[in-house]
Amino acid sequence: MFPAPLFLALLIVTTPLILIFDGPIFHGVVVAAAAVLVAIVGFRIRPGEAGFLSSVIRPIAIVAAFPALWMLIQVLPLGASGLAHPIWESAAAALGRPLAGSISIDPGATLISLARYISMAAIAFVASAVAVDRHRAEWILFALTMATTLIGLLILTASLGGLTLLSGDDGSSARIAASDSATLGIILAAAGAFHALERGNLRAEDQRRSAVSFQLAFVACLGAAAICSLAVFVSATRQTYFAATCGIATLIVAIVIRRFRFGPWGYSAIVSVALVIAYAAVALRPGGRTIDLTVAFAAQAPKPLIAVTQRVLAETSWVGTGAGTFAAILPIYRDIDELGIAPLSPTAAAAIAVEMGRPFLWAALMAAIALAVTLMRGALRRGRDSFYSTAGASCIVATMLLAFGNVGVFSTPVLVIAAAAVGIAIAQSKSRSI
Predict the structure, then answer these.
(1) Concatenated DSSP letters for 329-387?
(2) Which tens digits make up the pLDDT trace of 280-295?
C-alpha cells in the first residue's frame, strides 16, 4: 500500500495551509492529489484488502454515484425537454440566435463542482483502502486530529493574538471553515481519546506497545479536544455549538449502548429523544415559519443576504440552477441596496437547494442519515476498533447540522477532513476476521 498512507496523511496535515489560501488553485491541487492517490491504491493494494474493501464500499459507492450523475445531467443540452433554465431563453432572445440550454446556468461552474465532488469521493475511497488495516487507520486518525488541532490553534492565535491569519473578520469564509474544522476536531480527538483508553486497558497478547504509550496518547487526545473546544468557543455561533454537542452526544451514546448492551427498547428510547430534540430545534427556529428552513439558522449571515436568498429559493425549480452556480444566480435577484453583499450562500443547505434542487437536498440528508445509522450499527458490532465507525457517524451528524448553520462545509479543508473521517469509518465498520 505504501506510499498511499503517507501521501494521504500529508494531504490531511496540509489542510491548515489550504484553509489560509483556499481557492481555485488549491482546488486543482487537491483534485490532482486525489487522482494520484487513487492510482497508487489501484497499483499497490493487496488482493485480500481489495476484496474486503469492495465488500464494504460497493453499496455506498453506488449511492455516491447519483450526485455525480445528476451534475452531468445538469450540463447536458435539455432545451427540448423543458428542463432547461429560463435564463437560456432570455440569452437566446438577446443574442438573436438559438442556444442549447441546460439546467445549469453556468455549465463550467457545474463541471468544476463535479470535479471537486469526485475528488472528495476519491479521498474517502483512499482513506477506506488505507484504513482496512487497523494500524494504518490509527495513523490516519492521528493525522486528522493533528490537522484539526493546528486549525484550532490558528483560530486561537487569530482571536487572542490579534493577528489576521483568517481574514480577521468573524463572518469571513476562512474563519467559518476553521470553526467547522475545529468542530470535527473535537469529535475526532474525543474518539481518539476513548480509543486510546480502551486499548490501554487491554492486555492482549499481540499488543506491542506498553500501557504508558496509550496513556500518553490519551492525554494528547484530551489536549487536542480541549484546544478545538476552546477554538469553537471563541469563534463559533450557537448553531455550531449545537452541531458540536450533537456530534459528541452521538459518540457518547454509541459508547454507552455498546458498554451496557442496550436492547431494542433502549435503542427506541434514544431515537425518540433524538427526534424530540430535532423537532424542538426546527419548531423553535429563529423567525418561526417566515424564514426558510435552509437559512433559518444562518446566524452569521447578513440579513440582506438571507432576504435575497429566500427570493432565490422561492423561484428556483425542483431541478435547481446547476451545481456551483449560486454566485452566478444571486446578482439577478439583488436589489440596489443589496449590491454590497458578497456572492456567498448563507448556508450550505441553501446552496444545495438552489443549485441541485430541494428534492436533491432532502434525498442527500436521508442518504447521510442512512450512512450514519449504518456506521453506528457497524460500530456496535465491532470490538476494540469500534471508535472509528462511531467517529465517522458523529462527524456526519455534525456536518449535517453545520450545513444548516453556515457555508463552511463547502470549504476544501472541511471536505477533506470529513471525507477522510468517513472513509476510515466505512473501512472499520466491519471486521476482516468475519
Answers:
(1) HHHHH--GGGTTS-S--S-HHHHHHHHH-HHHHHHHHHHHHHHHHHHHHHHHH-STTHH
(2) 666 666 555 567 889 9
